[in-house]
Amino acid sequence: MVSFTVNEKRVAIDADPETPLLWIIRDHLELTGTKYGCGVGLCGACTVHIDGNAVRSCQTALSAVSGKAVRTIEGLSTTPGRKLQEAWVAEQVPQCGYCQSGQIMQAAALLATNPRPSRAEIIAHMDANICRCGTYPRIIVAIERASREG
């Protein structure tokens, strides 16, 4: 059994400790907002926070979160990240929407450590998250908006 916190709720999971956290979140905890994208940590669709840091859940073993705090997109609305989600809607960021939970989680990690990032800092921080639809300009504008309104 591996015990940790997900969205401020204590859980204990009986699974192979090497199981990727992504599958624990989706299959065991039924929190399907975190998406499978590439499976090798390159696209960012599976981004979650562990102790406040953005990580790729497809590349993080269950054993790595023992005793830690995990936050998924479902838990973001109870934090200052809610402003980010509101900015995403206001700026009409999503097209297909598949990558958006990972994009938002990556952006939330930035705003948690740097509430007023420059455009260059936003671009650098978000660089590793891929959007197949190419909504990068709207993503940047939404982060800037959340920063102003945060």
Describe the fold and architecture.
With 150 residues, the protein is of the alpha+beta class. The chain has six helices and five strands; from the N terminus they run ββαβββααααα. The protein has a five-stranded mixed sheet with strand order 2-1-5-3-4, with helices on both faces. Strand 3 and strand 4 form a beta hairpin. Helix 3 (81-90) crosses helix 4 (100-113) and helix 3 (81-90) crosses helix 6 (136-149). The longest helix is centred in the C-terminal third of the chain and has 14 residues, at 100-113. The N and C termini lie far apart (38 Å).
- The count of helical stretches stands at 6
Distance between the ends: 38 Å
Q: What is the H-and-E element order?
A: EEHEEEHHHHH
Strand order in the sheet with the most strands: 2-1-5-3-4
Shape descriptor:
globular
Strand content: 5-15%
Level of helix content? Answer: 25-40%
- Could you describe the largest sheet, including whether it forms a barrel? 5 strands, mixed
Radius of gyration: 15 Å
Question: What is the mean predicted local confidence, pLDDT?
Answer: 95
Low-confidence stretches: none
